[in-house]
C-alpha cells in the first residue's frame, strides 16, 4: 500500500465526521454558509496533501486543525473588512484640484529627472521608499555622510527647479 491517506479513507472520514467538523466550525464562526465553506475547504486541502498524512488515523486530527486555521483566517478577513468599512471615505477632490495635483507631480518628476543620478537615488529611497539614512547608505553601498550630502544637495536642486516652474 502506498504511503499516505487513501481517497477511500478520506471519503469514509468525510461521511463519519462531516457533521462534527461542521459543529467545530460553528463554534468559531457565526453563519452556516461560512462553516460549510470552511469544512469543505479543509477536506479539499487534506485531500491535496493526503500523501503527507502517513498515518491514516491522524487524518481527522489534520482535518480539525485545518478547520480551526481556516476559521481563524475567515474571522481575520471579516475583522479587516469591518475596520475598512468603518473608516470614513476621504473627500473627493474636485477636477480642478486633481488637475493641479497632476501638474505638480509632473513638475516634480521632471525636476527629479534633472538631478544627478546619486541625488535622485538617495531622495527616492529616503522619501518615497521611506528608508532611514542608514538603510539608504547600506542599499547604495555609500557612507552615511554621502547620503546626507547627496540628500541635501538634491533637495536644494529640487527647490530651485520647482521654483523655476512656478
From TrEMBL:
Boundaries of every RNA polymerase sigma factor 70 region 4 type domain copy: 106-158
Superkingdom, natural source: Bacteria
MF terms (GO), sorted A to Z: DNA binding; sigma factor activity
BP terms from Gene Ontology: DNA-templated transcription initiation
Domain RNA polymerase sigma-70 region: 14-78
Keywords assigned: DNA-binding, Sigma factor, Transcription, Transcription regulation
Pfam families, A to Z: Sigma70_r2, Sigma70_r4_2
SUPFAM superfamilies listed in its UniProt record: Sigma2 domain of RNA polymerase sigma factors, Sigma3 and sigma4 domains of RNA polymerase sigma factors
NCBIfam families: SigE-fam_strep, sigma70-ECF
Family named by the database record: Belongs to the sigma-70 factor family. ECF subfamily.
Record-given protein name: RNA polymerase sigma factor
Organism: Streptomyces gardneri
Amino acid at each position: 500500500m502506498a504511503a499516505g491517506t487513501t481517497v477511500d479513507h478520506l471519503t469514509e472520514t468525510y461521511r463519519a465526521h462531516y457533521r462534527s467538523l461542521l459543529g467545530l466550525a460553528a463554534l468559531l464562526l457565526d453563519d452556516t454558509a461560512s462553516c460549510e465553506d470552511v469544512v469543505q475547504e479543509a477536506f479539499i486541502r487534506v485531500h491535496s496533501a493526503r500523501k503527507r498524512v502517513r498515518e491514516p488515523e491522524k487524518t481527522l486530527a489534520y482535518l480539525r486543525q485545518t478547520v480551526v486555521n481556516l476559521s481563524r483566517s475567515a474571522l481575520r478577513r471579516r475583522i479587516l473588512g469591518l475596520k475598512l468599512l468603518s473608516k470614513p471615505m476621504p473627500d473627493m477632490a474636485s477636477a480642478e484640484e486633481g488637475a493641479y495635483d497632476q501638474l505638480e507631480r509632473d513638475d516634480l518628476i521632471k525636476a527629479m529627472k534633472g538631478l544627478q543620478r546619486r541625488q535622485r537615488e538617495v531622495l527616492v529611497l529616503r522619501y518615497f521608499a521611506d528608508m532611514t539614512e542608514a538603510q539608504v547608505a547600506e542599499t547604495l553601498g555609500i557612507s552615511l555622510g554621502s547620503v546626507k550630502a547627496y540628500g541635501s544637495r538634491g533637495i536644494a536642486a529640487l527647490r530651485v527647479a520647482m521654483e523655476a516652474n512656478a
